[in-house]
Amino acid sequence: xxxxxxxxxxxxxxxxxxxxxxxxxxxxxxTGVTYDRSSIQRWLDNGNNTCPATMQVLHSKxxxxxxxxxxxxxxxxxxxxxxxxxxxxxxxxxxxxxARDLIKEIETNPEDCLECMSKxxxxxxxxxxxxxxxxKIDGFVLLLVDFLGSSxxxxxxxxQVVRVLDLIVSEYxxxxxxxxxxxxxxxxxxxxxxxxLQRGSTESRIGSARVLESIAxxxxxxxxxxxxxxxxxxxxxxxxxxTDPVMMESTLSCLIAISVPRRIRxxxxxxxxxxxLTKLLSDPNSSVSVTEKVLKLLEMASSCKEGKSEICENSDxxxxxxxxxxxxxxxxxxxxxxxxxxxxxxxRDDRAQIxxxxxxxxxxxxxxxxxxxxxxxxxLAVDLLKIFRVSSKSCLSSYDxxxxxxxxx
Length: 409
Fold this sequence. Notes:
With 409 residues, the protein is an all-alpha fold. Helix content is 62%, strand content 2%. The protein has helices spanning 37-45, 67-83, 96-108, 114-126, 128-136, 140-148, 155-168, 175-183, 189-199, 202-215, 219-227, 231-241, 245-258, 265-270, 273-281, 288-301, 305-313, 315-324, 330-346, 350-358, 361-369, 375-387, 393-396; strands spanning 26-28, 34-36, 64-65. Residues 1-6, 84-92 and 390-409 have low confidence and may be disordered.
């Protein structure tokens, strides 16, 4: 079978304007625009009172089933299934020349480019070759940035722009130029990204977090992201409300990237990150990767006095940190030891020390000290044992050194 027969072009009328997937249960709003039931219900449940496609205020949030469209979709789906015994990919396939034509169309008519942007997303998803092709088209990435910075852009189109950027940003060679363009004072790209984080689909929200991480390449960019009203708080709120594992990991990675400058860490602590991270750390279903990222963020938080104080006051947090030692990975264990060193040795906090003792932390610290950990972490473990008055010369003599301490942050 030739390649062209493996792809079926989906009529744009059959796609939900929010998810861009073929609609399973099409329903129409009072504005006359039709969406898939699950997508529009999620939009309305998030507190929105506008039509996503037109941004008109909804006088009624009721919607009615579009039976005619549903029948048409069913007829079309049946014809597609009968056309070939091979699995069919319901995505439009563009040639590079067609992709260039779409970009020209977007440049000519940016106010009405939702369908074009949707096709660009599909084209970029198809292959790494396509993503590299788009990234190398002169001016295309900057065109996307201009669109993000527009104050009157269609929200659904903004979602697609974020998805395209997420897909191709790693292939874009001049990352510094991209960052400088997004940080220009006459653009408000962060407002668009924040809006997608608040109201977008899961896929576009994942894209937003990844794009933010991609542009947080130096201290200036990280500080400007952190200073955007509502951006950090929305990322932290996502940790408490999100169940999608990819979204969770993307959010944690983004927060780690943004929080590298020390002056940002007190801010994320004040926004309640320690409480949210404690909940994630206490979840037995958290993956290894999520747990490592949670502990990394707690380690960063413990480097400032506000973070140390929050961790020490939260016995559940200290307990969870001890419990994860030696149970997840060597990376997780080293993060955990560093946090405990910060609150128990550096801060000399009695509450944290008592919690560690109650949770059999001394035994674990001894095991870490004798394990194949890094020399720096082994020295932190020795310091912790000294604090807990484990002073047996036979235990510590071989580890006691005159090493000059360097803060592990």
